[in-house]
Design a protein that fits this description.
This protein is an all-beta fold. The chain has one domain (11-68). Helix content is 0%, strand content 51%. The protein has no helices and 5 strands. It has strands spanning 11-15, 21-29, 34-42, 48-58, 66-68. A 5-stranded mixed β-barrel has the order 1-2-3-4-5. Strand 2 (21-29) and strand 3 form a beta hairpin. The radius of gyration is 11 Å and the shape is globular. The relative contact order is 0.30.
Length: 73
């Protein structure tokens, strides 16, 4: 389970349904670990621009249609 509590405007990583990672911002909190995201695309999978993705659950292990905190460089 996530050690940090999600908050609006937090940068996170979204794992797309096809398994690709996308940069995202939390734009709403549904509950303790489920959030609404603005996912930023590079045009490869869904086209360019932000996409609203509602009700995304947190996962320690990246799984399709989940979010997690970015890895440190």
């Amino acid at each position: 389970m996530s050690k940090a509590k999600p908050f609006v405007s937090a940068p996170v990583q979204y794992v797309s349904p096809k398994g690709g990672y996308r940069a995202a911002l939390i734009i709403g909190i549904v509950d303790g670990t489920t959030v609404n995201l603005a996912v930023f695309n590079d045009g490869a999978e869904w086209g360019a621009g932000p996409l609203h993705v509602p009700s995304v659950e947190y996962s320690d292990e990246p799984q399709p249609h989940t979010w997690h905190w970015p890895e440190k460089p």
